[in-house]
Description:
Elements: E1 4-7, H1 11-26, E2 31-33, E3 40-44, H2 48-58, E4 68-69, H3 76-79, E5 80-81, H4 85-94, E6 99-105, E7 119-123, H5 128-137, E8 140-144, H6 156-163, E9 169-172, E10 183-186, E11 193-196, H7 202-206, E12 212-214
Parallel strand pairs: 1-9, 2-9, 4-7, 6-10, 11-12
Antiparallel strand pairs: 2-3, 3-8, 4-8, 5-6, 6-7, 10-11
Helix pairs in contact: 1-5
Amino acid sequence: MTSMRLPTSTEDEREEAVEAASLAVRRGALVVIPTDTVYGIGADAFSPPAVAALLTAKGRGRQMPPPVLVPDARTVDGLCTDVPDVVRDLIDAFWPGGLTIICRAQPSLAWDLGETRGTVAVRMPDHPAALALLRRTGPMAVSSANRSGRPAALTAQQARDDLGDAVAVYLDAGSAPGGVPSTILDATSGELRAVRAGAIGLEQIRAVAPVGDRADQSDGPPG
């Protein structure tokens, strides 16, 4: 199947592009979406075959599960359990935005993101096209739109050059405004730990909540 690259410059274009992307997600296909940080490759978070296809497209194994993007902060309680107050403070301060938070996943969820060890990394992006799509699809598994080991795509064309026809629909919103992946914090151990420095500086975060040194992880979830 040949992929489509669809512009989102005007409201009419965005409506048409988001509708095409939402239909692709519902049928289990992959899409590339713009976010406030970098472009992401996304799939229905609750479709294990779609998530597996996402990891295959990136050349990544199950040991690096993708984060999940959500359309609003309220969705967190449907995906995560035992969310501490400090995480809610961070969400209030930095969402939508470039902060990904790893929480304990709701054990009853029927999904398979990979070897998550009972956790899920969640973020609400600050981009109109991404949010419009998420409002139609619900939570999506989204990783940076590039083959593993290559730089994160900052344009839809860069993503297409890397991922080709493995992706059904590319939403093109020009250059990613942030250009830097999200900051990742781990909130699963009783205290916040930095996993990856990124779009939001740790000093900004520490003005809201205490954050310890980098967690003992060689790499955080991409995206």
